[in-house]
Amino acid sequence: MNIKEQGQDRILSIAVIALISFGLFMLFSASWVKSLEITGGDSRTYFLVSQMIKLIPAFFIFVLLTKINYRKLQFLSPYLLFTSFLLLVYTQFQGCSGDSCRWLSIGPISFQTSDVARFSIILFLASYIDNNHKQMKQFVKGIFYPMLAIIPVALMIIIQPDNSTTLILLTIAFAMLFVGGASIIQLATIGVFSVGTIGIFILNEKNYALGRILSFIDSSGSSASIGYQSNQALIGLKQGGLSGMGIGESIQKYSYLPETHTDFIFAIIGEELGFIAGSILMLVYYIIFYRAVQISKKSNDIFGIMLSIGFGLSITIYAFINIGVVIGVIPVTGVPLPFISYGGSSLIVNLMMIAILLNISKAQRKLNVKRWRLRVNA
Known about the structure:
Layout: E1 3-5, H1 10-38, H2 46-67, H3 77-94, E2 96-97, E3 100-101, E4 103-106, E5 109-112, H4 113-132, H5 139-158, H6 163-179, H7 184-202, H8 208-217, H9 226-240, H10 265-298, H11 302-326, H12 344-362, E6 363-365, H13 374-377
Antiparallel strand pairs: 1-6, 2-3, 4-5
Helix pairs in contact: 1-2, 1-10, 2-12, 3-4, 3-5, 4-5, 4-6, 4-11, 4-12, 5-6, 6-7, 6-11, 8-9, 9-10, 10-11, 11-12
């Protein structure tokens, strides 16, 4: 196969470096009060140092994935999908805390198994579409078989319970299958059925998601409620106004707003730096998605095209859902802000996606896939 080497996408690289740098800066500002609280007043940098330590393995994995031929990952896709399923099952027995079973600890390493599933589903679908692109118009080959493979993984995420991640992953899956050539009518039918099934699960009064939806409708709850979190986030954004209260001047991080270093860090960004900074941040996430689409358009490799679409969607959807929660247009979901929220597994997986995107951007492969590429280049 003839491969023409090109330089890595510099705009994408700069955007991610900027996000990580800005993220560390804002993480310290958002978390130093919480750091003092959990360390008994000994340290303001507990979460910052912990995140920087998590960046070390993330960096080595990132460099490794930029160096190897990304197509070598294709044969691993079914095995990785099966492994993610086993990890999700194991989490149900060993990773429970309270009413949720999302985190798995292996020695000193703790990670969210749904992040592994997110990466493996995108990798599997990209490989599947590459191998079956001529049959993607058929219902059995184009929708039934790939969905049959990923549904068990999605079901295990639902019972954690983590309905928001399940919906995001199904959205990414449907988008990839559509770009890959599957029938839009058939996808819409399956999509309605899937959303309806998850909706029935949510309406179970014991399911936490129902409480989140009700709190979204009525945000005047107690300090322990999810509605209270959303209300406090909006107060912070209102206080920030156009230009912000100033770096380090947030009031909401003083125990008014929970999870300021994770799910609600965008509220602190808006409070301290204002609407303008928040808008610039959203623009950077859009740039990442735009560059992912451009990388897919320049690639003649089906596997590379689908990885670019899937990874670009994953990072962007997570970002805008997190922001949507903070500004009050989406119920609280527990979705982190990519590259900025505190957390290791999400950071590593997102950097793995960026590394592969940069890898794809280096190689332009010459394959006859004109019919298939119409939707990408439309």
